[in-house]
Amino acid sequence: RATGLRASAHVEWSSHSQEAILQEVQRRQPDLLVIESFPKTPADGVLAHQTHHKLMEACPCPLLLVRSAIPYPAHPRVIAAVDPMHAHARTSALDEAIVSAGSEVAGALAGELHLFHARTPWVSVSGQLHGPGWIPDIVKDEDQVKYEHRVASRVTELAAGHNVTDLHIHLVDGDVSNNHRNTGYPT
Question: What is the pTM assigned to this prediction?
Answer without folding.
Answer: 0.62
